[in-house]
Write a structure and sequence with these properties.
106 residues, alpha+beta, Alpha-Beta Plaits, four-stranded antiparallel beta sheet, two-stranded antiparallel ribbon
Length: 106
């Protein structure tokens, strides 16, 4: 099963120490189950595109009105939702932000 991990943090949120936010150990622990991932640029650079009645509308910033925004993503392959939850719980951002897990449609 493949899962999309959406890494979420509040604007200006930072780990307690630089080591708390360092994903190196998590990358090593996750190993080949992590198929792809990257940090995204600051959400102030985001654009949301919608098409309504044939007109393309572009909005600056993320469309969702929430306290948290997407700061990165990972694509993980594992055997079950429980395994995905365990991997997400070990992600360094989980200690000061959140990791939303979404399974891919197979």
């Amino acid at each position: 099963m493949k899962f999309l991990f959406l890494i979420q943090v509040a604007e200006g949120a930072h780990p307690a120490t630089p080591e708390d936010g360092d994903p190196t150990a998590w990358f090593e622990e996750t190993g080949s189950r992590r198929l792809l991932g990257n940090q995204t640029a600051d959400w102030s650079t985001a654009k949301t595109v919608r098409v309504r009645n044939g007109e393309t509308l572009v909005t600056d910033g993320p469309f969702a009105e929430t306290k948290d925004a997407i700061a990165g993503f990972d694509v993980i392959e594992c055997g079950s939702v429980e395994e995905a939850l365990e991997i997400a719980a070990n992600h360094p951002v989980a200690t000061f932000g959140g990791v939303e897990i979404r399974p891919f449609v197979e």
